[in-house]
Write a structure and sequence with these properties.
Elements lengths: L5 H14 L4 E5 L2 H12 L3 E8 L5 E7 L12 E3 L8 E2 L13 E6 L2 E4 H7 L3 E7 L1
Antiparallel strand pairs: 1-3, 2-3, 4-8, 5-8, 6-7, 6-8
Amino acid sequence: MTITDPIADMLTIIRNAQKANFEKIKITSSKIKKSILDIMKKEGYIKDFQEIVEKNGRKFLQIDLKYDKNGLPVIHTIEKISKPGIRIYLSYDEIKPVMGGMGISIISTNKGILTDKEARKNKVGGEVICRVW
């Protein structure tokens, strides 16, 4: 089976794991996935993540999911915006806050993977990867 959109696959795994109340999940590793997870950690949507190298040399990311004091997932919604068939690019002045600033957009720019707030601050646009709130 060939995965045509590994980022969408990662987001779906996170969404499904939180619905099933998993504490930890393991996904294949890549630089862009690490960048996205780093932003999600900084913004408080996941507890932590670390890269694990197995004996055969394959690299995985272990993600510690985060829940509130009532046991509900911190991530209410996580959706992929730009897809392989339809790429969504926005200039910095077209990037709007998610849920009135309660959520984030993760954007791939020429300055790296940034949140919508950082992209507006640095006045850079790019491809909108996903929205989280």
